[in-house]
Structure formats: C-alpha cells, structure tokens
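User: Here's a chain of 234 residues. Predict its fold as tokens.
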Amino acid sequence: MAGFEDAGNKPLPHFLGHRERLKERFREAGPEAMPDYELLEMVLFRAIKRGDTKPLAKQLLARFGTFAEVLSADPERLMEVKGVGEAVATEIKIVHAASMRLMRGKVLNRPVLNSWNAILDYVRAAMAFSDIEQFRIIFLDKKNQVIGDEVQQEGTVDHTPVYPREVVKRALELAASAIVLVHNHPSGDPTPSLADIEMTKKIVDAGQRLGLTVHDHVIVGRKGHFSFRSNGLF
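Assistant: Prediction complete.
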C-alpha cells in the first residue's frame, strides 16, 4: 500500500513517525495525557537514536514497577535489563537528577510550614525507592525556612547507624535553629521500629539541651510515609 512500503516494496518500520507523534501529543495534551511507558519512551529517545523504544520502556516498568522507581534505580540495576547500556542508564539518571534539582528548589529558603507537602514530595522522590537505608537532615533557621538538606549517613538494606551527637553538631555548624529528620525503609513499610523511636528520642533530648528543636521525624517508603509528630510520638 502506498505510504506503507518503500520503493523496493519493503515494509517500512512500524515505528516510523511514532516519535514525532508522541512528541506532538506531549506538546498538545501535556504529560498528564500520556501513560508512564510513553513518557519513558521519550526519555529513551536521546540515548537510542533509532528504533522502537516502547518495548524497552515497558520492560523497565515491568522490572522496577513504576516510572519513579525506574528513574530512582541505581545505574548498575538499570543495566541488568537487556537493552540498557551506559548511555541509556546515564540518560535516565540525568532526568532523575534534573527532577530532584527542581523539587529541591521548591523547598530551599522557604518556610517549612508553607512548603510541607513539597518537602514530603521531595524526600519521597529522593529516598523512598532506594535499596539502602539513608538518614537525611533538613536544617531550618529561626524563621523555620529551609537552609540546608544533607544525607548524613547511608547504611545497609535495613540499618543506618545514626549518632545523635553528630546530628546536633552538624545542625550547630550550620547555625540551624530546628531540624526535620528523615530516613527511608527500603522494605517499603514506613512504620517505625523500636530502634527508630529510641534513636529519635535521643536526638530530641540532645537537641533540647542545646536549644535545637526537632520538628518531626519522617520515615518514607514505597507504601507512603510516617510522621512522628502527626502520630503523637513527639
């Protein structure tokens, strides 16, 4: 049929023009109109110059579960998927880094009470899908504006060593008046353990002695988040 075969009567690739159609739909309808696999297809365009990226996009989503989990996966894990080389893994991590930079910009130098949902979105995106435990501190000034954000410790799949004196010391170094503690549970369940509760109490006590307020301790996981303050543990 005309338009479907080349001059040598060979069928043209089924994905011919597919990239432009996706881009046009993205421009006209916006990202909300596109399923995750199509958005991921477009992320892969830059690394895979020719060919159909749909099968690889669907394969990545099948392996990791969600668009967010694909972006958050370590490069080594991404490259375990057939068809993902260094170029593809790098492109995915560039998009992830750009999204994290954007989200971080929404919380820095803003009052924590006015941007609490943005902070939750940021820490969930940064930590909820990690395969290892991380302990993060968000530092606040006297006006409760976010002045810093640091990962202080990284651990194993189920444990991160946290030293209350080091937490307080770092807060004082940054002239912070208050902090928000955040860590993740790679298991996905954000419910605090007895060790989490005891560690939080020690940091709160150490901070009180030096005039440092702990506003909250938030645990994030694939299944949501847990706020110590909202659940009456402060």
